[in-house]
Specification:
Protein name: Homeodomain-like DNA binding domain-containing transcription factor
GO cellular component, one term: nucleus
Pfam families: DDE_1
CATH superfamily: Ribonuclease H-like superfamily/Ribonuclease H
Distance between the termini: 30 Å
Strand order of the largest sheet: 4-3-2-1-5-6
Keywords: DNA-binding, Homeobox
Shape: globular
Number of strands: 6
Oligomer: single chain
Number of domains: 1
CATH topology: Nucleotidyltransferase, domain 5
Radius of gyration: 22 Å
CATH class: Alpha Beta
GO molecular function: DNA binding
Largest sheet: 6 strands, mixed
């Protein structure tokens, strides 16, 4: 649509119709995919090598693992109100969450959660039970710790070792797609997993978990968090109803991951 030159006046209705005819909306921008060029010769060469490896695997046996940071006490940045409303101080309580799924959405590994404390005060018997579940149980989480609550080479090595053993018991061979972060460069000899590393700085374009799966998981987590906050506010008038302990966050992480459906996962793999 060509906007007239010079000074002009237009009504809200005119502007609304222009937006509607041209499918214009106010949108958030996500990630860094707009700045990634995967058409270069070197990247295309790497992609061809990856495709050559993956051709020996069915979609059910092609997996992707990735981590994301989760500020589990974070209050929403926007709200609806009739007058100006003061916000809450941003919480810096953070966990790293690792997610694993295959290309069809028929397999979702249990979430791995990394905090900065070996034994958080809130960890009672129920929390420890959650933390020590077997690989493959999508209803629970596996807990680890590191000083900054980040993934480490040691944690990832232990995780993949357990995963490899589980697939070995099943007689299943899989290809595991990863970004090329140094913490993923394990030296462990694996029998049933082949690690396939994506080219540097291309995961926002090539990695399924970055294509909407993680965003969908976080949306489910926030929905549970905000429902709880509303209930807390209505019943006890807390100063900050968004606060929760790490046990509650881990329960919501497990629940949110369960709610990510196979169709969503499969669609993101096809991006």
């Amino acid at each position: 649509y060509k906007i007239p030159e010079g000074t002009f006046n237009f009504s809200d209705g005119w502007l609304t119709k222009v937006f509607k005819r041209n499918n214009l909306k106010s949108r958030y921008t996500y990630g860094e995919s707009a700045s990634v060029d995967i058409t270069t010769e070197s990247i295309q060469s790497e992609i061809s090598k990856i495709q050559n490896i993956l051709k020996d695997y069915t979609a059910e046996n092609i997996l992707n693992f990735d981590e994301t940071g989760l500020f589990y006490q974070q209050a929403p940045r926007r709200t609806i109100c009739s007058e100006p409303l003061g916000g809450l101080k941003n919480s810096k309580k953070r966990l790293t969450v690792g997610l694993l799924c295959n290309a069809t959405g028929t397999y979702k590994g249990h979430p791995i959660v990394i905090g900065n404390s070996k034994h958080p005060k809130c960890f009672d018997t129920r929390a420890r039970l959650l933390a020590k579940t077997a690989v493959g149980n999508t209803h629970h989480v596996e807990y680890h710790h590191s000083p900054k609550a980040w993934m480490t080479l040691e944690i990832f090595t232990l995780y993949v070792k357990k995963l490899d053993a589980a697939f070995r018991r099943q007689g299943r061979n899989v290809a595991l797609l990863l970004d090329n972060a140094s913490v993923h460069k394990i030296t462990l000899k694996l029998t049933n997993i082949v690690l396939v590393f994506l080219p540097a700085n291309t995961t926002s374009k090539l990695q399924a978990l970055d294509a909407g799966i993680i965003a969908n998981f976080k949306a489910h987590f926030r929905a549970a968090q905000y429902d709880r906050a509303l209930s807390q506010y209505l019943t006890s008038q807390l100063n900050n109803p968004y606060e929760m302990d790490q046990v509650q966050a881990m329960i919501y992480i497990a629940t949110a991951w369960k709610k990510v459906n196979p169709e969503t996962i499969a669609n993101c793999w096809r991006h």
